[in-house]
Amino acid sequence: MTATIPTQTPPQIIYPEDDGNPMSENTKQFQLIMKIQGGIDALFKDNENVFVAGDLLWYPIEKDDKTRQAPDTMVVFGRPKGDRGSYQQWLEDNIAPQVVFEILSPGNRMGALFKLFNFYQDYGVEEYYVYSPEDNELIGWLRSDGKLNYIELMEGWVSPRLQTRFETASGELEIYQPDGQKFLSYVELSRQKELAQQQMELAQQKADRLSAKLREMGINPDEL
Known about the structure:
- There is one protein chain.
- By secondary structure, this protein is of the alpha+beta class.
- The chain has two domains: about 25-185, tt1808, chain A (Alpha-Beta Complex), CATH 3.90.1570.10; about 185-224.
- The protein has three helices and ten strands.
- It has helices at about 25-45, 110-120, 185-215; strands at about 50-55, 60, 75, 85-90, 100-105, 125-130, 135-145, 145-150, 165, 175.
- A six-stranded mixed sheet has the order 1-3-5-6-7-8, with helices on both faces. A two-stranded parallel sheet has the order 2-4. A two-stranded antiparallel sheet has the order 9-10.
- A hairpin with a 6-residue loop joins strand 9 (about 165) and strand 10.
- The longest helix is centred in the last third of the chain and has 31 residues, at about 185-215.
């Protein structure tokens, strides 16, 4: 009698959605990450094939759950918007994020930064930007000839992919859209909205006063 050897099912690989590391270590770092991610997302809101994420784990290699990074902000051209628990590259037409931002905290160590650079270099990132709020220093790399090359002058630099301009002369990182509008925080956007509403109300009050004056003169403003 021939014994039947049971077939073994290979264990399912789980790709965790959390690496156990905090998104940020202080409020300033968190606010800047939110401003960059939100600003880029708004910039490409009408393009369904630009995916923008913050602190999302990126797995570049199928069946490898150890090789991964969670950029503070990453931008992927050629992939649809939508919710994801992680960015598994082989499920995304094997398209790597083209643009990556990292915002440093005082706790960052050179060894970790070197590891990040090597990861982004090895797995195809085209533009890599690092900003230190503590020192107000922005550095960047642009891929050419198959590797990330240091950008000598970052002040006023325009991202080839995003078409955004970077400035630090004010003492903090400022990012400008192609039309010249600056990336704003939620608080700044709220204040801008309030100011616009106040201006509309003042204009309406002025128009109402003018209409009342015309009516006093026997003129119907609706007929003008």
